[in-house]
Amino acid sequence: MSKVFKKTSGNGVIALYLGRRDFVDHVDSVDLVDGIVKVDPSGLNGRKVFIYLACAFRYGSDDLDVISLSFRRDIWLKRIQIYPPTNGNPTKTPMQESLLKKVGEQGCPFSFQMPTNLPCSVSCQPRPNDRGKACGVDFEVKAYLANDADNPDEVIDKKDTCRLMIRKIQYAPANKAGPKAELSKQFMMSDKPIHVQACLEKEVYYHGDPITVNVKINNETTKTVKKIKITVDQLANVVLYSSDTYTKEVCAEEFEETVGACSTYEKNFQVTPLLANNKEKRGIAVDGRLKDEDTNLASTTLSQGDKEMQGIIVSYKVKVTVAASGGGLLGGLTGSDVVLELPLILMCPKPAG
């Protein structure tokens, strides 16, 4: 084991150990969250040791909590008692066996199996001067001392707790042929249309890689195409009390390309959506981060499609806009655009091994 993540309670009675903090959602299953809590029985004073894994939606930073309002809602939570143990002597995972060699006899193993309909770790980019945790979806493993598992009247001192934030992530699936779209549009005062076809080179693109868009135009009109604009939009569907979709443009490129009347045209264009080019845009969804590490635009959320998912569900689309100027007697009054949209999967590659 290359690294162990540890957090000790303020009173030193319990300590939480994890062998990793990233857990992969494989769409049809999720990695088991397994670890160890080291317990010093002499400091319990008759209390028990509990641990929970929570997936929560945070919709306000900590500094807004001025009248004891909670800006955090649990989407899913599972709680277990680990000391005194209640489930006998369960089979230990290889990770737990490795951690127990470090922790010793006071180690109590625990494990959680997340369901497949939970969102991935996602944050919303704050303003430059915002403080506290960003809005978004996060996962927390927390161990604590208490007399009862979940008694709302019992006050649990901060020194009796220890917690570690973890991430639920997805990696890009095997690539397939890219999506294709085509549209024919007929304009006022024109008896023939402009045919536009656009396609992506492949279905899945990795963060930071240029996206290749092939555009074909068959202009049967008397108009002239003077510009092609390609944009990438991020759609963040926030499903909590209701369902709201927020669309943010994360990349836009204009190309001064001319396609004359009654002519054809084909060309590949490349655009690259990067978080570095969107640092000033508040509310853009980014992949969840631990502490202050770098991250990227939020990855596309892969789901089985038949299960309702709460939290933030992220998708992308590439929009191709072909701008045609007016022709004939009315000139610019009859100019118009042909707009096509293509779905885009933007994710991180699966690490080797």
Describe the fold and architecture.
This protein has one helix at residues 94-103, and strands at residues 5-8, 14-18, 22-24, 33-39, 48-58, 72-83, 107-112, 122-124, 136-146, 161-169, 180-186, 193-200, 204-206, 211-219, 224-239, 243-255, 263-271, 285-287, 311-325, 336-347. The strands form 4 sheets. Strands 3, 5, 6, 8, 9, 10 and 18 form a 7-stranded mixed sheet that branches. It is built from 1 helix and 20 strands. The protein is mostly beta strands.
Radius of gyration: 26 Å
Judged by helices, strands and strand pairing, the structural class is mainly beta
User: Could you tell me the number of beta strands?
Assistant: 20
Q: What does the main sheet amount to?
A: 7 strands, mixed
Low-confidence runs of at least 5 consecutive residues:
none
Count of separate DSSP helical elements: 1
Strand content: over 45%
Q: Give the averaged pLDDT, no decimals.
A: 87
Write the element-wise H/E pattern from the N-terminal end onward: EEEEEEHEEEEEEEEEEEEEE
CA(first)-CA(last) distance: 15 Å
Summarize the amount of helix as a percent range.
under 10%
Apparent shape: elongated
